[in-house]
């Protein structure tokens, strides 16, 4: 059965004032009705450059992770050119590679892995769909990579992604160090509990084509990330929204900063001290929005639960310890954890 890609639907509906009913969200989800307009949320911006004291960085990251669950890092050490190349080859895959070639790396229906080109990710509530196509594949560690899901075209796709992965690992390591220190632990303890060298870096490219009714649709429905943390670079088109103090807000971002989301697994490891961020994505009438989140995840068999040093009589465990693959299965199928 051929899957309807949102990119194709966008081309057909471009000159219309309507979209298929399965993309129209319920009223309590529609962005026009639920966004606090005229206010842009300034999430914390944290300088993680080599000149900044590690203790100061850890304190700021811990505060942002407890209060917001989202922040931006600058002076992160990834050259602008490396980010630009990542974005260039991703854009070319979606916009210049023939559709039949894209379908060669499509996710197979019923596949265990989420890797590959696709449109739908999880069980859709009331059959409603997000206005987005995507590509998932792992970029680290080498033992976890399946190049079958990496585009062959554009030709520099692999080189650009490998270079980005190499640089991004330093940022990931620094985040884990700071999050660990921020809880009064040794710098190495949290990354060791998370799986150290076995932590999987899963890239997702989100492609949100123009939508004739951005007031009625969402790119990605409201959710928290399943990962430990998510390291994200967007293109220049606004679209990320965060739920805070009972309202949805647009988030402003700084070019070439990296947006960091606290995910469910860090909330679990920290026994609820750090909060995973509840967020969603809106779409644009005239412009294509794209984003490149990298989810830092446990290997499927790795067990995640509250860290023993954070548990005592006054702070009993708030979460079960379970294998990551079981956590993912429950979350994608809307089952209780």
Automatic annotation (TrEMBL):
Protein source organism: Solanum melongena
Record Pfam families: 2OG-FeII_Oxy, DIOX_N
Domain of life: Eukaryota
Gene3D superfamilies in alphabetical order: B-lactam Antibiotic, Isopenicillin N Synthase, Chain
Alphabetized UniProt keyword annotations: Dioxygenase, Flavonoid biosynthesis, Iron, Metal-binding, Oxidoreductase, Vitamin C
Sample GO molecular function, one term: 2-oxoglutarate-dependent dioxygenase activity
Signal peptide: none
Family in the record: Belongs to the iron/ascorbate-dependent oxidoreductase family.
Needed cofactors: Fe cation; L-ascorbate
Xref: InterPro entries: DIOX_N (IPR026992), IPNS-like_FE2OG_OXY (IPR044861), IPNS-like_sf (IPR027443), Oxoglu/Fe-dep_dioxygenase_dom (IPR005123), Plant_2OG-oxidoreductases (IPR050295)
Fe2OG dioxygenase domain boundaries: 198-298
GO annotation (BP), single: flavonoid biosynthetic process
Protein name: Flavonol synthase
């Amino acid at each position: 059965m051929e899957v309807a890609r949102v990119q194709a639907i966008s081309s057909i509906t471009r000159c219309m004032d309507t979209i298929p009913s399965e993309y129209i969200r319920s009223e309590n989800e529609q962005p026009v009705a639920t966004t606090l307009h005229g206010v842009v949320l300034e999430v914390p911006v944290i300088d993680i450059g080599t000149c900044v004291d590690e203790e100061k960085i850890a304190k700021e990251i811990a505060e942002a992770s407890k209060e917001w669950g989202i922040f931006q890092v600058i002076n992160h050490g990834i050259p602008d050119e490396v980010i630009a190349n990542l974005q260039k080859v991703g854009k070319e895959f979606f916009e210049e590679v023939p559709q039949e070639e894209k379908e060669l790396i499509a996710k197979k229906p019923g596949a265990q892995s989420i890797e590959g080109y696709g449109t739908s990710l999880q069980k859709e509530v009331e059959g409603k769909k997000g206005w987005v196509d995507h590509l998932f594949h792992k970029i680290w560690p080498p033992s976890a990579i399946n190049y079958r899901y990496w585009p062959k075209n554009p030709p520099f796709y692999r080189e650009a992604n490998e270079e980005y992965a190499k640089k991004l690992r330093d940022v990931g390591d620094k985040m884990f160090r700071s999050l660990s220190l921020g809880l009064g632990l040794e710098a190495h303890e949290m990354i060791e509990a998370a799986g150290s060298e076995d932590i999987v870096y899963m890239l997702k490219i989100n492609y949100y084509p123009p939508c004739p009714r951005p007031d009625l649709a969402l790119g990605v429905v409201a959710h928290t990330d399943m990962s430990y943390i998510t390291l994200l670079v967007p293109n220049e088109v606004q679209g990320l929204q965060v739920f805070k103090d009972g309202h949805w807000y647009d988030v402003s971002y700084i070019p070439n900063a990296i947006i960091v989301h606290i995910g469910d697994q860090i909330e679990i490891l920290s026994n609820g001290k750090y909060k995973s961020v509840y967020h969603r994505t809106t779409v644009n009438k005239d412009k294509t929005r794209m984003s490149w989140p990298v989810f830092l995840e446990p290997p499927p068999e790795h067990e995640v639960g509250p860290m023993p040093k954070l548990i005592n009589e006054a702070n009993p465990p708030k979460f079960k310890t379970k294998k990551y693959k079981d956590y993912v299965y429950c979350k994608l199928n809307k089952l209780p954890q």
